[in-house]
Each structure stands twice: as C-alpha cells, then as structure tokens.
Design a protein that fits this description.
alpha-1,2-mannosyltransferase activity, 14 strands, 3-stranded antiparallel β-sheet, Glyco_trans_15, alpha/beta, Alpha-1,2-mannosyltransferase ktr1, 12 helices, Spore Coat Polysaccharide Biosynthesis Protein SpsA, Chain A, Nucleotide-diphossugar_trans, transferase, binds guanosine-5'-diphosphate, 7-stranded mixed β-sheet, binds manganese (II) ion, about 350 residues
Length: about 350
C-alpha cells in the first residue's frame, strides 16, 4: 500500500497529491465527518465498515472536524483502525456559534418553546451543528483542495461491497449530488423554510438555472413536500456549495434566523439547494449502497445488487418511501415555472 498523500502528522491538507492505487489515481476527494470525542467507538465502527466495503482498496483520506480539540486518545484510536491518511481539524470560531442575525434572548425562548415539540427541539448545539453543516463545512481549510466529499457519521452501517469508486462515478457521469435515503422532514422543524426560500428565489432570479428538479420539493400547488436527501450520507461535487447561488441562498436563510428560531436541518437545506440549482440528471440515487443510520435503512433488492449486501429486506425504507417514489416520477421544470411556484 503506497500513498503519496501527506502522511500522518503533517498538516498539509489533502487534495494536491496523486496516489497510485489498484484502480489508478484518486480524485481530489475525501470522507468527511463532524464528530465529537464522545463518539469515538461509533466513528471507529463506521470507518471499519467504509474501509471493508470500499476504501481499503482506494485509500481516500478521512477528515474529521470538531468544535473542540480532539483528544490524543481519539486521534490514536481512529488512526489505529485505518491505513488511510486521517486529518483532524478544529472549526474556526466564526463557523460555530450563534448567527449574528439572531438574538440570544429570542433563541432561548425558541428552545424553550420547542423543547418538547420535536427531537432536539431544545438543543442549542444541534442547531449550531446544522448551521455549520449547511453553511460552513465546505469552507473548512482541510477541504479547500477537494472537488468531492462523502459525508459519513458515527454509528452508521454500510451493508454492501462497493466494487467501484463512487467519486469517479460522480465525475464520469457529471453528477453533482448523490444520496441513499430520502425521508420526509418533520414539518414543525422547518415551518418557514419554504416561505423563506421562495423569497430568495424571487429576489434572485438571476441565480436560478434554466431548469431544475425543484418539483421534487415543491408540488404543483406550491406546497413543500418535505422531501429531502438524508445528508448524513451525501456524496457531493463541492462546487455546488461553493457556488454564488448557494452562498447567497445560505446567507438569506441565515439572516431569516430559522437555524435557531426553528430547527432547520442541513438535510432540508442541502436538498432545497440541490433541487433548485440542479437538473435531475445531476442527482443520483446510489441504490446499490445499502446503508443504515438510526431511524431508516436502505437494503437493495435488485438481484445484481443484493448479492453484494448483507441486510434484511424487511428493514428497507426506500422501496416504500413517498419521496423516493416522487424522485423517480417527477421531472425538471423551467425557470418561469419555478418562479411561478415561488409566487403562488
Ligand atoms: P442526527 O443524525 O440528526 O440525529 O444528529 P447527530 O447527533 O448524528 O449529529 C450529526 C453529526 O454531527 C454527527 O456526525 C455528529 O457526530 C456531529 N455532531 C452533532 N453535534 C455535534 C457537536 O456538538 N459537536 C461536534 N463536534 N459534532 C457534533
Ligand atoms: Mn446522525
């Protein structure tokens, strides 16, 4: 196993090197997670599975980010579970905290009001996490040289061998966004997200593409379908999040305060952006990547896929998911139709 990625202990961020692997060169890509010291065992479990199913044969770097310092034990125990290069980074202060557009008093009142209304309703750190993953993760210095990232999390399961490089699959097929599971969001956490989004659209028509997959998230009657890609798994061409349109969209959302006053998740935010800014052909369901995150699982049932997986078909969510059905049925709409929906 040879790699010209910067070795452990060096601070140079990944992305500049070329590694010779059995499958040729690596792309400028990495597996990335925001994670806490307390999640060490769950993270090691995830890394072990990602390595066994895929990355052992490629050696893409792992990047772990934290709002606090990682402990020596965390770093040692993570490094011990994989041969791939691992980078540990701390978040810049400006990326983790109260948005400048909200007031502490009103946030406190919102947490109190929402604490029993939905999961994490009273959690301040959860909201900072969602805001970070929405607006800042792609700006972290360790990600600056990457073209693609694959988000992972502690305590998830990868059910299937992945005998190819999903990053290269993304590149070769001009894909911008890849997902495995599409649930519906809890409405109470995103009460004003669509309304805020539609104002951004109407104020910034010049940032909208000629056509997009918007209909997946907003139906014929201009109602939010609550469909989203579950972003605890996402493989993304980072130029999506680095685009002028995304930056403008995120800032608009941040100014509206919903990351704190409500509990807007990075999943619905990323999904709105992908649906509004991309065409359907740029978005890919990795149906062959069986996956579980507490709450939902996807267990592939196609004959050519399931022989590579170990999971129980009964655990699958995707073959009965409303948003999955909608994903296959809905097509792109043109900009004038998008603006009409925003206007309704
Ligand atoms: P859920 O998937 O929505 O239930 O939320 P999680 O608790 O799994 O959090 C999502 C991701 O953010 C996971 O990778 C967590 O490890 C990470 N995360 C959540 N809160 C914090 C936090 O306060 N600090 C750090 N460093 N990571 C966090
Ligand atoms: Mn999670």
């Amino acid at each position: 196993y040879h790699s010209s990625w910067p070795q452990d202990g060096q601070s140079m961020p990944p992305g500049g090197g070329n590694s010779t692997q059995e499958d040729g060169q690596l792309l400028r890509a990495a597996l990335v997670a925001l994670v806490r010291n307390s999640e060490l065992e769950g993270l090691r479990s995830t890394i072990r599975q990602v390595d066994d199913r895929f990355n052992r044969r490629y050696g893409y770097p792992y990047i772990f980010l934290n709002d606090e310092e990682f402990t020596d034990e965390f770093i040692d125990q993570v490094r011990a579970v994989t041969k791939a290069p691992v980078y540990f980074g701390k978040l810049p202060k400006e990326h983790w905290g109260l948005s400048p557009y909200v007031t502490e008093e009103k946030v406190k009142a919102a947490l109190e009001y929402n604490k029993d209304r939905y999961l994490y309703g009273g959690s301040f750190s959860y909201r900072m996490m969602c805001r970070f993953q929405s607006g800042f993760i792609h700006k972290h210095p360790l990600l600056q040289n990457l073209d693609y990232y694959w988000r992972i999390e502690p305590d998830v399961n990868y059910f299937c061998d992945i005998p190819y490089d999903p990053f290269k699959y993304m590149r070769d097929n001009n894909l911008m966004y890849g997902f495995t599971i599409t649930p519906m969001e809890a409405r109470k956490t995103v009460e004003t997200l669509w309304n805020t989004t539609r104002h951004w659209m109407l104020e910034n028509p010049h940032l909208l593409p000629e056509k997009s997959f918007m209909h997946w998230v907003v139906n014929e009657k201009a109602k939010y379908t609550l469909c989203h890609f579950w972003s605890n798994f996402e493989i993304v061409n980072l130029s999506l999040y680095r685009s002028e349109a995304y930056e403008s969209y995120f800032n608009h959302l941040d100014r509206a305060g919903g990351f704190f006053y409500e509990r807007w998740g990075d999943a619905p935010v990323h999904s709105f952006a992908a649906a509004l800014l991309l065409r359907k052909e740029q978005i890919h369901w990795f149906e062959d990547i069986g996956y579980h995150h507490p709450g939902y699982a996807h267990c592939p049932n196609k004959p050519e896929m399931k022989s590579r997986c170990v999971c129980s078909p009964g655990s699958d969510f995707m073959y009965r998911s409303m948003c999955s059905r909608r994903f296959s049925e809905v097509g792109d709409i043109y900009k004038d139709q998008m603006l009409e929906l925003a206007h309704m």
